[in-house]
Amino acid sequence: MTTYTARPIAPTVLKELRTTDDAGRPMVPVTDDEGGAPLRCCLRRSEPGERIALVSYAPLRRWAAETGAEPGAYDEQGPVFIHADDCPGPNPTNTYPFADAHRTVRRYSADGHILGGELVAAPVADPAFHNAFDDPAVALVHVRAVEYGCFLYEVRRG
């Protein structure tokens, strides 16, 4: 049985986002006084006192640039929290982060077009990804927050 892996935003992309985000804005670091922000660089929640930033990120656009896909109108950008400075990345034992609430598993074709999605109850686990990748037309999925629709992480076939 295949186990799927949550993919954080890649370090090379983080470096770019820390200069100029996908909406063309400079990063504005802040000190997180409360903690709890879902960090897409290391796939964990922030701790009080950490320096973080809310940046605009276009995950499908970035994937399409790697693969040659043409997502057309499905290309979207939205807000994500990242560490304002380099971080060590995700803990490899945290298989599916941010699994403490309902999530949407949105499916995309190799062209970058939406093929549907599934509302998944907490905790998010392998069956949600098996359901998605049972369809051979699905190339990748995005896990998104239900309450705001924000991108949390990507899972790819294989």
Short account of what is shown:
The protein is of the alpha+beta class.
Keywords:
4-stranded antiparallel sheet; 9 strands; alpha+beta
Protein architecture, described:
Helices cover about 15% and strands about 30% of the residues. The chain is of the alpha+beta class and about 160 residues long. It has a 4-stranded antiparallel beta sheet with strand order 7-6-8-9, with helices on one face. The chain is globular, with a radius of gyration of 15 Å.
Would you spell out the secondary-structure blueprint of this structure?
Elements: H1 11-17, E1 30-31, E2 38-39, E3 44-45, E4 51-57, H2 59-67, E5 78-83, E6 103-109, E7 114-120, H3 126-133, E8 138-145, E9 151-156
Antiparallel strand pairs: 1-4, 2-3, 4-5, 6-7, 6-8, 8-9
List how many beta strands DSSP finds: 9
Q: So what's the overall shape?
A: globular
Largest sheet: 4 strands, antiparallel
The low-confidence runs, each spanning 5 or more residues with pLDDT under 50, are none
Q: Quaternary status of these chains?
A: single chain
- Percent of residues in helical segments? 10-25%
Using only C-alpha atoms, the radius of gyration works out to 15 Å
Overall mean pLDDT score? 94
> Strands of the biggest beta sheet: in what spatial order?
7-6-8-9
